[in-house]
Design goal:
Chains A, B: Homodimer. The structure is a homodimer of 466-residue chains. The first copy, chain A, has 466 residues and is an alpha+beta fold. Chain A is built from 14 helices and 19 strands. In chain A, a hairpin with a 3-residue loop joins strand 17 and strand 18.
């Protein structure tokens, strides 16, 4: 019976005393005169499996010399292990090499820095750290789909290639089939009639506007796909290509939006805690000691909800010297966000009702009866301890006249947005949504502090390997 | 109690005689002297809900005039319906307009052609057809994740931006931040030092090679993401942006690969049949009369497996005039594929062991002892009735010397593929994988014949709306 290590470990009691076949790679290997031990991994499980072999095997002397990362077929019996780090081990009756690894394998047994491992992107998924990170990434992705599926949300594939400019959400990459050594021109301008789409096309920075189309048809939808920013910022938190989840809900005000976002975050964390206990223990031991406590704090507490104006009042009264001075109207900086969530509330906090002037055109204007000189919009950001902002969302402006007036104020080209205004002309409804950066979530759940280490193939300024 | 139509219909018996609140859009509306009927939809369910209102409502005369697609809040009681098309209806006690739709709404009650609806991409998800197609799309996507999650496969996000050329898998889009009106040049060549990634970068045509990296770490992985082809082909089956699923399995030969592919296809179809019965009935009634029979045929039969050489023999003996003459060595055309699967086997057929010369460099060479003059590779295509090829896969060449020799033969630049060869140097194992075009699956399951109608926002030559 051929099994993966995951299958064996999952119900190991069932297999005790049974003969099985396992295939995998040598993680470590040691031997003495007449007995040898191989730690075998196949990557299906965070744990590896101990293989014990004796000199009754005819190729005992060869097996001792098999190099790290060589692939093997093991035939043997499952037995309870006397060791305290494992429940079972395999007593091998036959060990057959599949392919021996060259001895200059770049990941030898010693521990490597994440910086070194980034230079070995095609090997690093084989390490404990990246095996754990990328499995958690996979589980978290599944949790997101499961959450929305259970709620009856429709998964909408919004386009990656877009001809709309997303109104300043970020710098965009252009996509073209023109020959860059000599792009065709007419009157000094690029002649897009020779380009694939007959017009300039870019990579999406957000699927929100298209998700609104889908929400006005299905009520509840979400996107989950790659998103791009051509920002020249070489930080630990920015990548040029990242994945984003954008739910969009019709007949939903900002309060409903926060309810779903809170439930959503808790669901993902609980799912990973339940389904990756070994990986989570590893992170809390080797990556971030406070991790499990922080995550349990998140899932066990009701998130706080305050307005931006209340947040400013709190910050002004804070006995802390901020690098960026606090004044009503400013965009909150990470230091402000972290102070509020870490020092004041010590749990996740929704901040709502931001100044209109610092938020996007599509956000719904509030009444602001009490402070008409300080116009706000129905925006919400979710701040979490250790990171700061992890979700940004808003109720969308669904009133045609208000939206049109605002877009004119902002000198936007209304001609390009007729389809978006059409959604307000024909069956408009209050609707809300938010964006959740998938890598931010993975960093938060694993404690890994650099976005390059939660993306299997990170793309950043000057770096696009493979 | 505010409910979606999906929630009400799912357990309607529970709600009979209860007062509920429903929000949605007017699909149709008619009234006589003292009674009116509104067919209300919120898109959460294929079925709409009948709202009955009488002249006891003070705004009876206004309600009669509400335009199609106006959004409403309905308060009322759930009652069993005397009509035979529905189990329940709502007797309204209060009807409040949210936003009235302008009366020139482009989708009036009459039936529209799919061609017309393509010009109304921001409204077409509101029609029965597209509501059904995009919900099935969402369900099929979930089925795919669920299938692989249950099997312990890791979902790997392979990169969209790539600096490798994918060796002729298809024409590629270039991605750049250079100013196309005047790209910087050095010695007549584009100077990529000024581009975002310091080198030419394109949109991926396949995640396979990177998936191989992940498979050699996790054993079983899959990708599911957007893929791009800049091919100037304006057909009903080609889009420039489409989604693809690419499983990759270590310690797996071509037979295992076919077993998984067969199970996978059946799983998706069964999941959709179980979870979208109304939608499937609609398709089989209005889109493709033979649909359900064809799908049941697929899930209930073991797929046939023949070699390419056997396929050629069958085609040569066929009493059919093919447009493309049949000879050992040719690439099978759709007419050949459909003949085999529709006329001969009348069910899905795997064709294996194609001529080496017509397949990609990475496919594993066969022994070919019986016919050394006809070298073949361990490739497999799955052909299905009504469509032809729906899956293409292969065992990968894992022998370093064989792969290197072949790449040299093909005059490939080995320098660019050192990482790929490294996978064979350090712990190589037999491995296999396949690619499944997601839109092809959706077309197959829904009977919809144009790829533009299974993509919410299709991108094709000269067309990139939004």
């Amino acid at each position: 019976m051929k099994l993966t290590i995951r299958e064996v470990l999952k119900e190991y009691k069932k297999f005790i005393d049974q003969d099985i076949v396992i295939e995998g790679w040598i993680k470590t290997s040691r031997s003495s005169k007449n007995i040898g031990f191989i730690e075998l991994t196949d990557g299906t499980s965070f744990s590896s499996l101990q293989i014990v072999y004796g000199d009754d095997l005819e190729n005992f002397k060869d097996i001792e010399k098999y190099t790290i990362s060589s692939s093997l077929t093991i035939e043997g019996k499952v037995v309870e292990s006397p060791g305290k780090n494992q429940d079972i081990e395999i007593h091998a009756t036959k060990i057959t090499p599949i392919c021996l690894s060259q001895s200059d394998y770049p990941l030898q047994k010693k521990r490597h820095t994440v910086e070194y491992l980034r230079t070995q992107a095609h090997f690093r998924p084989r390490t404990n750290l990246f095996n754990a990170v990328f499995r958690v990434r996979s589980l978290a992705a599944f949790a997101i789909h499961k959450f929305f599926n259970e709620k009856g949300f429709v998964y909408a594939h919004t386009p990656i290639l877009t001809s709309s400019d997303a109104e300043g959400a970020g710098e965009m990459f252009q996509v073209t089939t023109l020959d860059l050594t000599d792009p065709p021109k007419t009157d000094g301008c690029v002649d897009y009639r020779e380009d694939f789409f007959d017009k300039p096309v870019h990579l999406t920075v957000s699927g929100q506007l298209e998700a609104e189309i889908m929400a006005e048809a299905f009520t509840n939808v979400y996107t989950f796909g790659p998103t791009f920013r051509a920002e020249n910022s070489n930080t630990a938190r920015h990548a040029a290509e990242f994945w984003m989840i954008e739910p969009e809900m019709a007949f939903a005000d900002i309060k409903v939006c926060m309810d779903i976002a809170e439930e959503h975050i808790k669901y993902i964390i609980n799912y990973v805690l339940d389904n990756a206990p070994e990986e989570m223990e590893f992170f809390s031991k080797f990556v971030d000691k406070g991790l499990l406590e922080r995550l349990h704090n998140v899932v066990n507490n009701e998130f706080a909800r305050i307005t931006y104006t209340e947040a400013i009042d709190i910050l002004k009264e804070a006995k802390v010297e901020f690098a960026y001075p606090v004044e009503w109207g400013i965009d909150l900086q990470t230091e402000h966000e972290r102070y509020i969530t870490e020092q004041v509330f010590k749990k996740p906090v929704f901040v709502t009702d931001y100044p209109k002037a610092i938020k996007a055109f599509y956000m719904k204007g509030n009444d602001d009866k009490d402070a008409p000189d300080r116009p706000t919009v129905a925006a919400m950001d979710l701040l979490v301890p250790g990171v700061g902002e992890i979700i940004g969302g808003s109720q969308r402006e669904h009133r045609l006249d208000v939206l049109e007036a605002k877009m004119k104020d902002l000198k936007m080209d209304l001609e390009n947005y007729q389809w978006y205004l059409d959604l307000r002309r024909y069956g408009s409804v209050p609707h809300s949504g938010y964006g959740l950066g998938f890598e931010r979530v993975i960093m938060y759940i694993t404690g890994v502090s650099n976005i390059r280490d939660v993306l299997p193939f990170p793309r950043t300024v000057g770096s696009c390997e493979f």
